[in-house]
Design goal:
By secondary structure, this protein is an all-alpha fold. The chain is built from 5 helices and no strands. It has helices at residues 2-21, 23-44, 54-71, 85-120, 122-136. The two termini are 34 Å apart.
């Protein structure tokens, strides 16, 4: 039992510290990746077509608010929208990164707890192995088609 407890503590410690090692580099790379995706969407964006995903909807809102802002009179005291102009694209990058990180955090936490559960309970590990063998056999890795 102490081996299992020690293993789970080591596993948790390693996972926590591995995540911190390169978080700045990861965030920088993620920001560049989001910029590239947004730029591709901007190049292909057509306001006359139905938006296909979140980024298209956001770009449509930026375009709408930017054109509305330009058409508004100077007498208008309204606060500019966070979707307007360059700030809109900066905010789109931030929101896209946050959604990506939230999704990966949720997934990694679920995987971490699943692995920890198998470390702590060999019977659970055996059941998982049995299900994997039944569904995929031992000749290939599981895929989305195995749902």
């Amino acid at each position: 039992m102490t081996d299992i407890l020690f293993s789970s503590k080591v596993f948790t410690w390693v996972m926590k510290h591995m995540a911190r090692l390169s978080s700045v580099r990861i965030l920088d790379a993620l920001g560049r990746f989001c910029d590239e995706c947004i730029q591709r969407h901007r190049e292909m964006f057509d306001a006359n077509n139905e938006p296909s995903d979140f980024v298209d909807h956001y770009l449509a809102k930026i375009e709408h608010d930017t054109s509305s802002s330009a058409a508004a009179s100077e007498e208008d005291d309204k606060e500019p929208s966070s979707f307007t102009g360059p700030d809109g694209y900066l905010n789109l990058n931030k929101v896209t990164k946050e959604l990506f990180l939230a999704g990966t955090h949720t997934t990694s936490t679920a995987l971490l707890w699943s692995l920890l559960c198998m470390v702590m309970d060999p019977e659970v590990q055996a059941k998982v192995r049995e299900e994997l063998d039944r569904v995929t056999g031992r000749t290939r890795l599981p895929g989305l088609s195995d749902r």
